[in-house]
Automatic annotation (TrEMBL):
Record family assignment: Belongs to the methyltransferase superfamily. LaeA methyltransferase family.
Organism whose genome encodes this protein: Neoarthrinium moseri
Annotated segments matching region Disordered: 1-34
Entries under SUPFAM superfamilies matching the protein: S-adenosyl-L-methionine-dependent methyltransferases
Protein name, as recorded: Uncharacterized protein
Length: 382
């Protein structure tokens, strides 16, 4: 096991953070002291849906499913820093990641966890893994996936790595969190992994091929890598999303992230990248996810709730990225307000694709085998 700080030793209960507003202007409260597993989150959401059989008539009941909760852990001061807008960013390798790590951002990540739980029908992984013994979760964020994985596979050792030690204390002894830049730092692990998981890591790396190559090298023969991420694309059945503020916002995210030196919208290139480093048996699944709870069927409505909540919470932290596309602060505010209005409008029947892609290291490739571990994407080039 590498000799690095252990999150559970550094995380203590503390400040709660304020949330945002959502459909019908209802305040989204922050998460609880012991944040529940996704099953509890979803059962609360389901209970609320039972109360509100027609969500479109009373959307605030949906939001209320997160009521009376407080996120009960705070960020260790030694690793965090506060910027001028009052948001907290990681202090380890500052500038390596553009999004905050505070309670609001942690809530957003947990919305995404709930969303992928629905997309994957309650499963944590799509790759055909059986009884994995060593699991790595890169860019683990709140650690909610790693904690659930450790409970689901009690005989596995689960490691979550991140630039921020914001994770909750694991509920089991087989889950550990480490501070690590997965792209620029060398991976030092004593055992090969059977499964490596990355979710919502679009903004994390200059060139994700470096991480794919390291993953390949550190997987056991026959081990699997899996990515779960949104494509930053917007669709509608009748083209009503064309020319919308949200469409423009997404296009500016692409330009802004390119200008920041990391195109975070490259999920469509991942299949080729995985092939390039030697992965085989690549599987893909794409799910259209409503951008708000506009859809009639319960599953789509729930997905829309969690995606919409996540996108609403993303408007503020992505200001920097939009600013890098050349917009002034006033223009960013104006655009964000228009996007918020569109996302809250249940008449907008729009959706975005959520992508899952997994791939296997060939059985004839030994642990440690593989090629170069550093790629460098040229800004502006695919
Ligand atoms: C959008 S969050 C996703 C969190 C988690 N995977 C989830 O889906 O709930 C991205 C996370 O990756 C972390 N991260 C960003 N760049 C990283 C890097 N180079 N190495 C390791 N972690 C990184 C961030 O600190 C953040 O917690």
């Amino acid at each position: 096991m590498p000799d690095r700080p252990h999150a559970s030793q550094t995380l203590q209960g503390g400040n709660s953070q304020t949330g945002d507003t959502n459909w019908s202007g209802t305040h989204i409260p922050t998460a609880p002291a012991n944040f529940p597993s996704q099953y509890e989150v979803l059962s609360q959401a389901s209970a609320s849906l039972t109360d509100a059989s027609n969500l479109e008539a009373d959307p605030k009941l949906y939001v209320a499913s997160f009521g009376e909760r407080e996120r009960g852990w705070t960020i260790p001061d030694m690793y965090s820093t506060v910027d001028e807008n009052g948001r907290t960013y990681q202090g380890f390798m500052p500038g390596e990641y553009s999004l905050p790590n505070d309670g609001e951002e942690q809530d957003r990540q947990d919305f995404q966890h709930a969303l992928y739980n629905i997309i994957l029908d309650g499963k944590l992984a799509s790759a055909p893994i059986r009884s994995p013994k060593h699991i790595l979760d890169i860019g683990t964020g709140t650690g909610i996936w790693a904690i659930d994985a450790a409970e689901l596979w009690p005989s596995a050792q689960v490691i979550g790595t991140d630039l921020s030690l914001i994770q909750a204390a694991p509920r089991t002894s087989n889950c550990h969190f480490f501070l690590e830049n997965s792209e620029t730092q060398d991976w030092v692990y004593s055992s090969p992994f059977d499964y490596i998981h990355l979710r919502s890591v679009g903004p994390c790396f200059t060139d994700i091929r470096t991480v794919f190559q390291k993953a390949y090298n550190h997987l056991a023969p026959g081990g699997w890598i899996e990515l779960q991420d949104g494509a930053w694309e917007l669709y509608s059945l009748n083209n009503t999303s064309r020319g919308s503020a949200f469409e423009r916002w997404l296009a500016l995210i692409k330009v802004g992230s390119l200008n920041q030196g990391r195109d975070m919208t490259k999920i469509r290139s991942h299949r080729d990248y995985l092939k390039q480093v030697g992965f085989v048996n690549i599987g893909e699944k794409e799910t259209p996810v409503p951008t708000s709870p506009w859809a009639k069927d319960r599953k789509s409505k729930k997905m829309g709730y969690f995606l919409g909540s996540s996108m609403l919470s993303a408007l503020e932290p992505y200001r920097k990225t939009i600013g890098s596309a050349g917009l002034s602060p006033e223009e960013i505010d104006e655009l964000a307000a228009a996007v918020k209005q569109e996302l809250l409008d249940l008449r907008n029947h729009w959706f975005m694709p959520a992508c899952v892609i997994y791939a296997q290291k060939p059985f004839n490739q030994e642990y440690g085998s593989g090629g170069q571990t550093h790629f460098k994407q040229e800004p502006g080039k695919p």
